[in-house]
């Protein structure tokens, strides 16, 4: 059982976009096997990137594994409450320096695109995802021995949504609340008019 939370859009969107949202209620019995995980990672692999640099890296942990427990421990307490029911937690990192030691200025942008591709592919497989910025990046780096060129960006919970999953009251209310966004006009910039003379 899942909540249906369709986006109230001004123009028709593909259902994978209109129906995507970020639940916290995951089915604690669901297992994410390789046959389902591989297409998600493959979708990320084929995301666009500056100069085809592909700066993203994914550390995959599954519920029940030691690595899952270690990654879960880096989450903020508010995320720990529910994320332990996810089938998998993925640590997403960006390689921000190239092979010559020079900066990759678009690494974070490109990594975000890879995550977006993964999220939509998960949606196509009937899976739910929830991206978390609420984690201790320094602790995650230490827990998994990430080198200095890898910047932890986000932790991604993946699994099957389950509206029957029990959440604490404040989180349960957020789970049932409608999806909202700012008006489109609020997101558009106006071109500046430059006076010449």
TrEMBL record:
Gene3D superfamilies associated with the record: NADH Oxidase (3.40.109.10)
Pfam families assigned to the protein according to its UniProt record, in alphabetical order: Nitroreductase
Family of the protein in this entry: Belongs to the nitroreductase family.
Protein name: Nitroreductase
Keywords: Oxidoreductase
Organism: Micromonospora inyonensis
Domain Nitroreductase: 18-65, 77-160
CDD domains noted in UniProt: TdsD-like
């Amino acid at each position: 059982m899942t909540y249906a939370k369709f986006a109230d859009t001004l123009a028709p969107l593909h259902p994978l976009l209109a129906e995507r949202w970020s639940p916290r209620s995951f089915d604690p019995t669901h297992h994410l096997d390789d046959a389902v995980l591989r297409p998600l990672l493959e979708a990320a692999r084929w995301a666009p990137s500056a100069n085809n640099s592909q700066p993203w890296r994914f550390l995959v942990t599954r519920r029940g594994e030691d690595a899952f427990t270690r990654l879960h421990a880096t989450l903020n307490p508010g995320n720990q409450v529910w994320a332990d029911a996810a089938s998998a937690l993925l640590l997403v990192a960006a390689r921000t320096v190239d092979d010559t030691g020079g900066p990759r200025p678009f690494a974070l942008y490109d990594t975000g695109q890879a995550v977006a591709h993964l999220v939509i592919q998960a949606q196509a497989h009937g899976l739910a995802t929830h991206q978390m910025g609420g984690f201790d990046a320094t602790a995650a780096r230490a827990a998994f021995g990430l080198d200095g060129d890898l910047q932890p960006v986000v932790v991604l919970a993946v699994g099957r949504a389950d509206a029957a999953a029990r959440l604490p009251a404040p989180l349960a209310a957020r789970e049932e609340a409608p999806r909202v966004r700012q008006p489109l006009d609020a997101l558009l910039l106006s071109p500046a008019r430059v006076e010449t003379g």
